[in-house]
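Lecture 7, part 2: worked example. A protein chain together with flavin mononucleotide.
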Amino acid sequence: MKALVVFDSVSATRMTEKVAKAIAVEIKDQGVESDCFYYKDVNPAVVNSYDCLIVGSPTMAWKPTKEITQFLNGLSNEPHEGKLAAAFDTQVQSRISGNATKAIEGKLVELGFKLVSTPLISYVEGKTNTYQMKEGELEKAKAWATDLAKTLKSG
Ligand SMILES: Cc1cc2nc3c(=O)[nH]c(=O)nc-3n(C[C@H](O)[C@H](O)[C@H](O)COP(=O)(O)O)c2cc1C
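Predicted complex, written out as C-alpha cells:
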C-alpha cells in the first residue's frame, strides 16, 4: 500500500502544505508508505503507481484553486478504477466559507477513484499571508491521517 499526498498552497505561510506534510508523516508513521508533493512537482503519469491519492487545496472563493483543479483534470487520461482517494482543504472558520473538498471529491469520483474517508477540513486564522493554523488543527489532521492509514492497512 502506497499513498501520494498532492497539494496546492498559495499564501506565504503555506498552511495547506503544512497539513499535507503532517498527513504524509503520520501515514508513514502508521506503516503506510507515503510521498508528498506540491502539485507542480507531480507527473500525472506516476499517480497510478500509488494505491491512494490524497488531494488538498486552500479554499478560495468557495472552491479549490484553479491549479489543483487543472492537476485533477490532467489525470483524466489514466484509468483510476479501483484506486482509493481522500480530500482535504484549509479554510477560515465561517458559515460562508465553502469547502474546496467538495469539488475535489467530485472530481476524484468522476475520475474513478473510491473515496475512503470523510474529507478533512483544517481551519486557519489571521490575515492573508500571515495565516496560522487554529489551535488543535494540526492534531486534528494527524488523527484524520491515523484513521486513514488504518483504513488503508485494513484494505
Ligand atoms: C483570494 C482568496 C479567496 C479566499 N476564499 C476563501 C473562501 O471562499 N473560503 C474560506 O474559508 N477561505 C477563503 N480564503 C482563505 C484561504 O482559505 C486561506 O488563504 C488558505 O487556507 C491558506 O492556505 P495556504 O496557506 O495553503 O494558501 C481565501 C483567501 C484568498 C487569498
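Residues 9-11, 13-17, 58-62, 90-92, 97-98, 124, 128, 131 surround flavin mononucleotide (CB under 6 Å). The radius of gyration is 14 Å. Keep this in mind for problem set question 3.
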